Amino acid sequence: MRNDINVLLRSQPEIKQFIRQHPHWYRKLSRDPYQIRQLEVEVNQFYGKTFPQRMERIQNNLQLAMMLLQMLQMNSFGGAQEQPPNME
User: What Cα–Cα distance (Å) separates residue 15 from each residue in 25, 30, 35, 40?
Assistant: First the structure.
């Protein structure tokens, strides 16, 4: 493998880990080192770093927070109220 690709792999551990999990990339990069851009695209998709994936994660977190707020509001305002103990 070319020296510049080895330097890239040493400087970016996520790419190095991805290549270890997908060894066909060793062969691709050895034959055509200009496929490094395609590798970076696949790495970003694999680790969920694309813009749509980030937006989806933010939306899911917001939905979870809204659901938790609704549950807290139901419990504190409209939930079952405590009744005083029966003194018989």
Answer: 10, 15, 13, 7
